[in-house]
Structure prediction request, 233 residues.
Amino acid sequence: MNIIEVTELIRKEILIEFRRKSSLGGLILYTVSALFIFFLTIKKFNDPAVINAILWITILFGSVNVAARSFIQEGEGSHFYFYTLVSSQTLIISKIIYNFFIIVMLSFIASGAVWLWSGNLGGLPALMEMHEQRQAGNFPEFLLIILLGSTGLSTLLTFVSSISSKSTNQPMLMAILSFPLILPLLMVVIRLTEAVFEGSGFSEIIKDISILASLDIIIITLAIILFPYLWKE
Prediction:
């Protein structure tokens, strides 16, 4: 893997994104609109359990939309061109890193929107009172969960997108393959977020954090090992 090549591929993705401003704008609009609809229709929007479910539903579907563009939007000509330029590991890593940053951005936008409309974030007090509450110290744990969850989502969904790109019915295959594979990751992330929203400290969630980190490592390793075989086809 060449770091310079990875950097250049990420730069290429960023340039393409800025040229198609409607694409990123559509993702942000989708995220905010989905949360706003939840806010209008759900009575107990400030309930931590409700916020936890809504937050990760929105992040999940936003992540699927982000990752689906990785390979599905590129034609066979682009795939062959990249095949002659860079190694398969370089290509998949660059796309995973780029999707990771987009998913993290969407996650923070979703979290900010939830905090704005509910008056708190996951049952935390309003911003002016946060420093007086014990739960305010849970923000680093929440940030860590977002980062680890985004890592797993970006890696798994990017790899599934590469598989789906070989099919004639790409969107349907993307949905069919991604949701069963992503369930273990989602279960751990949701359990961790719920614990943090209830005020659990780092020492109380270290076991689940370790499980989530281990899942990320396994997913990344498998994606890097398996993608070259897929890329040759």
